[in-house]
Amino acid sequence: MVIATRLLPMGDRAVLAEVGSLDDVLALHAALAASRVEGVIDLVPAARTVLVHVDPSALTLAAARSWIDRAARETDAAAPVPADAPVVELDVAYDGPDLASTAGLLAIGPGELAERHAAAEWTVAFTGFAPGFAYLVSPAWTFDVPRLASPRTRVPAGAIGLAAGFAGAYPRETPGGWRLIGTTSAALFDPDAAAPALLTPGARVRFVPRATGPATAGASGTGGDASAGSATVGEDAAEAAQRSIRIIEPGLLATIQDLGRPGAASLGVALSGALDRGALRTANRLVGNLEHAAGIEITMGGLRAVAQGDLWFAVTGAWGPILLDGRQVDPYEAHPWAAGAELRVDWFAHGARGFLAIRGGLGGRAVLGSRATDLLAGLGPAPLHAGDAVAVRDEASGPVPVAGIAPWGAPDDADLVVELAPGPRADWFAASALVDLYESVWTVTNDADRVGVRLDGPVLERVRHGELPSEGMAVGALQVPPTGRPTILLMDGPVTGGYPVIAVVTDAALDAIAQARPGTRIRFRHARAN
Q1: With contact defined as beta carbons under 8 Å apart, do 179 and 163 qualify?
Q2: CA-CA to 1 of 20 to 30 Å: which in 117, 124, 158, 300?
């Protein structure tokens, strides 16, 4: 039987294929994976959709839509999960803060809710949201549990939650909108393991109750190279002592970033990488690096560091005073940095994120193909701390240019005009919401980080108020929770989500969003047709 498929826009670099059931999702995903064409970056299955990320320079959206449609017409429904699929047992203490209120919503007692949850045999339908986060389904679980109206900013590692018809366990501390009913001590994700995710699609899962009490350590695997305090962010401590930079003060937040981890979203791994990709690329070119070399992303300024050897550096992106041993130097230029000299990237007057590139590149081993710090997933090195030594690599690709290679100016962070491409769930909103989206002035709130930027403005009125099954997300997606005010997802944002996306910031406009400070005013306009 042909899979009935509805193709929906997801910005200017993705297509969302919506089907009628989870079985259809599994079948379509398998067909697309088997016939994958050049230009497809990622395939992200979810509850009723498969998100297809593309590189438009290799595969146009129109060609991608034709390929998806052809695969759907030639594919039958998926076979059921085999009875001999592996079984994973997760210990659970039913001690979650939402246990009683969730039981009340379902008109049962907390004890009965826990008993039914433990009695069901679950299957991993798909993964997403964060590395190691699996969406579990069971024919014995017939409850439809609504998400929280406003998601928590922090959910602890090991928390077990419910949303819609799914159960799931959080591998590490993240934001989240699921209703929390318990805790597990299981190590759900370890990027250094041969199989990083404990729960993989098709696996069967049983929850085994234990006595209520604190979970043991191990629920939050990370791939970090560094930790708080004095540490070496690199491959070899002795080598780093000869060729590194020593952090004196990191400022508000300083992280190692390259151009991220494309192609791993189906594992729940976000793109991550530099928020202002153009600034990082320019900084690397200025010192003769490949564009994707890792540098330091500095949030709001305040970084101080000392060279442990003779180096070259460049600073781009946000604007503020740059001092080398007390002498002011210009941004967007390569400068020699003598051993023992102190570099100070002072607090930024314009823009939010500056980028420090060192000739040769920075950082240690790659984690899943990248040296980037992913704050949501906990992959890559930890944020930099005073005393850290950041290793300098030897991967320069050419000489330092003799002259400036690009014009520059301070980021315009007071008033931004940002282009939006269509989102898949615009029909969930009233016509007035689209008018408000494009005709209102929005303000960046203090809730702005590498995961996303919350905006203040009018409430975007919905005409559909039911739960949206979790589906793939794109960087730049404007998710709208029931509160009605959108959040723009950024590089460390979740790869799946359950709030409708009304529109998506175009890829070309993402760098401008990266430089928006709290209080920045934004106007949206429709993206121009290519």
Answers
A1: yes
A2: 124
